Amino acid sequence: MALPYGIKHVSELPVEGKRVFVRVDFNVPLTKDKRVSDDTRIRATLPTIKHLIERDARIVLGSHLGRPDGQHKPEYSLEPVAARLAELLDQEVFLTDEPVGDGARKVVGDLRDGQVALLENLRFNPGEEENDEQLARTLASYCDVYINDAFGTAHRAHASTAGMAAFVADKGAGFVMAKEIDVLSKLLGDVERPYLAVVGGAKVSDKIEVLDALLGRVNAIAIGGAMANTFLKAQGKELQKSRVEEDKLPVARNFLRKAGERGVTVHLPVDVVVAPSLDAAEGRAVSIDHIPPGEMALDIGARTIEAYRKAVKEARTIFWNGPMGVFEKPQFAAGTVAIANAMAENKLALTVVGGGDSAAAVAQAGVADKVTHVSTGGGASLEFIQGVELPGIKALATS
Fold this sequence. Notes:
Blueprint lengths: L18 E5 L16 H5 L1 H9 L3 E5 L16 H11 L3 E3 L6 H8 L6 E3 L14 H8 L4 E4 L10 H5 L6 E4 L1 H14 L6 E5 L4 H12 L4 E4 L3 H8 L14 H14 L2 E3 L3 E5 L8 E4 L8 E5 L1 H13 L2 E5 L12 H12 L4 E4 L2 H9 L8 E2 L3 H8 L5 H4 L5
Parallel strand pairs: 1-2, 1-5, 2-4, 3-4, 5-6, 7-8, 7-13, 8-9, 13-14, 14-15
Antiparallel strand pairs: 10-11, 10-12
Helix pairs in contact: 8-10, 9-10, 11-12, 12-13
């Protein structure tokens, strides 16, 4: 694939016998007994790591885990990740006792062709999130080649995602990063139409920038989740106990006005699943005009599901980010799962899922392999399709 800005693919770089630093995204959930509970992000990087092993590179992996706030906190150690990676690779993974320092330098220096080391949590060093130049130079001194395969952190200008690349001559994208750039770039170019965006989640404030950016590209937008409540309230609907961002009502009205002026269809729920609280055992569908007092909207209803499914079926390019309801509770997950299935059933469209809860939904529905692309980065994918230049991608540019 031809990547923009002259970015090189890992397969094009001279890695044989060289130390190759790979920024990976191993920010994975752990169980109480410190075992990896979901290894999806680790598995995603295996093609890049195995490619380097096969080419006799000396591999130095770097990642963060959680938010240790620049301190060495044992609960955020990458030890469980190193153990799981070793199982998946069926070879030893050497974990350093610190992200940088004499111990880390020795482990890296002792690597032989085809061996793998994992630096301890990069965020144990406060310079990581500060994009400290000294830390960036130190990390760069550990390698001859720099590869970024952590798209999920590409929107962060940190020492390992942006800073260190300036001090390494040979640099490029791993398999994960390259595919993300390739597929998401298509959404910014000439796409097959109709182009539909399905946007959900809790807050208008979290998504208004991406919604505004999409107005200039899409033919239609289907809105779900709690953020739909704010748009409905802006239209004069009574939402009772439903979550509404009262201070964002003018923003919602302005967005709907702009959509109308541009000829972009905005689909909003016509019915919702309501319950007295998030802890209710079940909900019931009611018209958006007849939400009972004391109840709140927690998912889209059957008529809305059908309307959204029809929009998905007719589209030829679809970008989806954000759940349609309180997806983590099975009784309020039907709308989100229905969108996942509808996207999987549309074999004629370019279907892109923008990470986060949407990625979890297609996985839960068992259809992750039936959509064109599931992004590994929620925030990064949203910024990318807004046309924002991501620091982690810009750092790889050679032209």
